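Sanity check

After download, print the first record. It should look like this:
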Amino acid sequence: MASYRYLIVGGGLTADGACKGIREVDKDGSIAVVGEEPHPPYLRPPLSKGLWKGDPESDIWRGTGDLGVDLVLSRRIVSLDLWAHEATDDRGETYGYERVLFATGGRPRRLPVGGDDVIYYRTLDDYRRLVDGIHARLPHASIGSDMIVGFPGETDGDFAANVAYLPASPLTHLHVFPYSDRPGTEATGMRNKVHGSVIRDRGIELRRIGSDLSARFRASQVGTVRPGLTLEDGTLVVTDNYLKVRVAPGLRRNERVSVRLTSPAEGLLQPSIADSCEPTASGDR
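Expected structure tokens:
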């Protein structure tokens, strides 16, 4: 049985705040956080705001593990013996403690209709499930994300979580930005800065993954017909899912067309010449 000076039941923002408060007065006391989710504490507001505007998922992590805290994830405390100072989780593991804090969250009230078609949006996994659902219903959709590497407090584990998630995700492209200090910003004064060489290496890795995601998406669109708009001198078409296609001269700029995508090359999808570029009913030739 593992024993701790502080046992925190619940793995949300309250638990993270408690850990940071404890460390201000007790630098070395052992702390365990037992949480039901498979993720360490993270910010929840971005799940319905920032992440949908392109903010990187890496920004939500709170860095609780960097405080010398044992994070026991995907576990739920099911019994508590106040006299013995022991708690037991749903897998039968027992934790001894000197002090215990309950920092559990709530669950959304379920509607009497809708069944599994209703997403009760509360956790990071709910967000990921919603993104996957969009991809399943709109397989041609282009879903991109901004990724900041090396934000203060980003641990090796945080970065590894992104690297593990991204290749199999439905994302189609990434915009990768290395963090750098900006005078007057709050982040400039934050602790746990990431070394410049680490930021560089992480950026290279994410750009490689982003290139693979883009290539995969372009290849998946070969054979489809997409509506688009001509740009530049009329030989560049941007489709409704943000693919760039080079076509033969003969069209004017700002025409609505349809293109049949035949093969990806050099980052652009090449249409066939004979049947790929035809004005739609709303086109103006």
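If your output differs, re-run the checksum step. Summary of this record's structure: The chain is about 20% helix and 25% strand.
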